[in-house]
Here is the input.
Amino acid sequence: MKPRRYLQLDVFAERVGAGNPLAVVLDADDLDPARMQSFAAWTHLPETIFLLPPGAGADYRVRIFTPTQELPFAGHPSVGAAWAALDARLVPADADSLFQDCAAGRLPVRVRRDENGIRIAVRAPRARPCAADEMRRLALERAFAGIARGALGLRLWDNGPRWWLLELADEAGVRGLRADFAAIRAATDGDALGVAVFARSDGADGADYTVRAFCPSDGIDEDPVTGSANAAIAAALLEAGRIASGSAYRVSQGREVGRDGWVEVRVDDDGEVWIGGAVQATIRGELVW
Here is the structure.
């Protein structure tokens, strides 16, 4: 069995040990989906990615797996994939724009360099509200009963994965929430990746919004930092007129699980949502699988 280059990254992380961990397997073109899924289950990280030769018009291709399923798109794996492609010289080291192939399509990526290193931003697939099973919605309403809410009620959104979004009244409510994982698991299993709650932050730490994401039906009770959920939240805020095209803001997520992460969210002039941040390499090695 041939050795493959392997990385473990912290994504949306200003320092090693923060953000969301990501397993990256390079030289993966001879792995079939079953072996990819089995390795993703073995790592038990929120996501594992496999970098593959691209199709025409793209710079690299990525397949994204949670411990239980393949996803068409996910945010921190896409940011991490672009960083890994640059690091491994799969693309020119000085590139400032790239195109990623994934199951959700061909996504543009922007690369920005500053004194602290490389920052990656990817344009998320456009999120749209979608029809929801009423029994699942009522079950989630019961799971969050008695919690002070914000203006945007519980609603299901799709931008590759599907997320239930719920605005809470304030940052303290988000940070202090004790989620009912059993109820969330039962209501989302086979239907959505999970539930993301959010609120406007007080700004004391530089955050504009605070987010937490719960996906116990996918094997991770609380995801540390969630690009796809943040992109869906931005789409919901845009639809509600709470933010405008051309706006940008910062999100704090992951502090409650010891993974203090920061997501840079930007809505471009066309109303498309970009999510980005910093990436740290924590492990470099070889994999035999």
Notes: The radius of gyration is 18 Å. The longest strand covers residues 273-287.
